[in-house]
């Protein structure tokens, strides 16, 4: 059965407040309008919802049942509306520690300056979140990811501190930091392919590994060696002259940054963020 939503709202307010007058004040209506809505609702349902004794009203047993259901329904609607409004004005992102520290957090101000009506909340974690209001930016095996979800196919190269002189790979052992992923199912950093591409096979390398690229990058910035890492993480550092390249050629890997079910994010704020992150990762 279809009933007027406005009449149901008038009834719920009057039932909750115990007064047509107070309901009228809450809904910015007149007491006569409240009475009219409730009379129409009672006529439509063919029941009495209130006992009327002069200006005093009280719920009937049927009215009590309907009031409980109506109040619960409107609370759920209000809660859903609050979530929709929040989702429209904020973007919550989860990603790897390295991408958060090296790219997203340093670029956050840039996004919020361009989108003053949207704020970003960034958290780190390795699991893929399934909540519709959280955007998971993940690092994974490109062969296991839907092509439409990929944001950037990753390449790798070697970097050192900006003030370092070019390294002679043939004269002395070189300390090279790289990454051994926590997730052992991921493809390894393509160091062998990089050495072959740059004709450096057989070089004397002391390889040191961390479980996050961020740590190897920090060691390189401290001039403790070179780092073999993804080029996505070094863009801002190269521009800021904190890291440098040594005229070596990058190599493509089997890794990528992606957002699972990227097309499922429907809010305008999420769409703006996804367009923006694709741009900054592919500069």
Task: For the structure shown, list the relevant keywords.
alpha/beta, 283 residues, 9 helices, Arc Repressor Mutant, subunit A
Annotate the secondary structure layout:
Elements: H1 5-17, H2 20-27, H3 31-45, E1 50-53, E2 56-59, H4 61-89, E3 90-95, H5 97-114, E4 119-124, E5 134-141, E6 150-161, E7 174-179, H6 191-197, E8 205-210, H7 213-221, E9 226-230, H8 235-239, E10 243-245, E11 251-258, H9 268-281
Describe what you observe in this structure.
The protein is of the alpha/beta class and 283 residues long. It folds into 2 domains: 5-84, Orthogonal Bundle (Arc Repressor Mutant, subunit A); 96-281, D-Maltodextrin-Binding Protein, domain 2 (3-Layer(aba) Sandwich). The protein has 9 helices and 11 strands. Helix 1 packs across helix 2 (20-27) and helix 5 packs across helix 9. It is rod-shaped and about 105 Å long.
Summed up:
The chain has 283 residues and is of the alpha/beta class.
Query: Mean pLDDT, rounded to whole units?
Result: 90
Please give the alpha-carbon distance between the first and last residues: 57 Å
Helix content: 40-55%
Q: Biggest sheet: strands, sense, closure?
A: 9 strands, mixed
CATH superfamily of the largest domain: Periplasmic binding protein-like II
Fraction of residues in β-strands: 15-25%
